[in-house]
Write a structure and sequence with these properties.
With 132 residues, the protein is an all-alpha fold. The chain has 3 helices and no strands.
C-alpha cells in the first residue's frame, strides 16, 4: 500500500513540475529557451513512463522478486535500468544547457561592466582637474 501511495505521489509531483515548466515557458521569463523546455518535457514524459512501468511491473505482474519469472524479471529490470540511464543523460544535457546559458549571461555582464568602466575612466592625455 505504501509503495502505491509513494509512486502516485511521485508521479503527481512530476506532473506539477511539468506544469510549472510549461507556465515558465509561456511567460518567457529570463530567456527560457526552447531547448531547455524540450529537454525538461521529454524528461517528464520519460520519468512518468519509468515510474508507471515500475508500478505496473511490481504491482500488476509481481516482478518484485525473480522467483518463477526469471527471464521476465531480468528483462523488466534491464528495461528499467536503460530508462533510468536515458533520464540521467537528459539531466546531464539539461545541466550542460544551463551551464552554457550561465556562461553567456556572465560574458554579457562582464562586457557591460567593461564598457561602463571605459566610459567613466579619464583618458591619460587629460590634465587632472583640481577643485581646490
Amino acid at each position: 500500500m505504501l509503495f502505491t501511495i509513494v509512486m502516485i505521489a511521485a508521479m503527481l509531483v512530476i506532473v506539477g513540475f511539468a506544469l510549472r515548466e510549461v507556465a515558465l515557458f509561456a511567460r518567457r521569463r529570463d530567456g527560457y529557451t526552447l531547448r531547455r523546455f524540450t529537454l525538461r518535457l521529454s524528461m517528464t514524459v520519460m520519468l512518468l513512463f519509468l515510474f508507471g512501468s515500475i508500478f505496473v511491473g511490481v504491482r500488476v505482474f509481481g516482478l518484485a522478486s525473480p522467483v518463477g519469472f526469471d527471464k521476465y524479471w531480468i528483462a523488466f529490470w534491464a528495461f528499467i535500468t536503460m530508462l533510468t540511464f536515458a533520464v540521467l543523460c537528459l539531466v546531464l544535457a539539461d545541466l550542460r544547457t544551463l551551464g552554457e546559458e550561465t556562461r553567456s549571461e556572465a560574458a554579457v555582464l562582464w562586457q557591460e561592466m567593461a564598457h561602463m568602466l571605459a566610459e567613466h575612466t579619464p583618458d591619460k592625455g587629460e590634465e587632472p582637474r583640481g577643485d581646490a
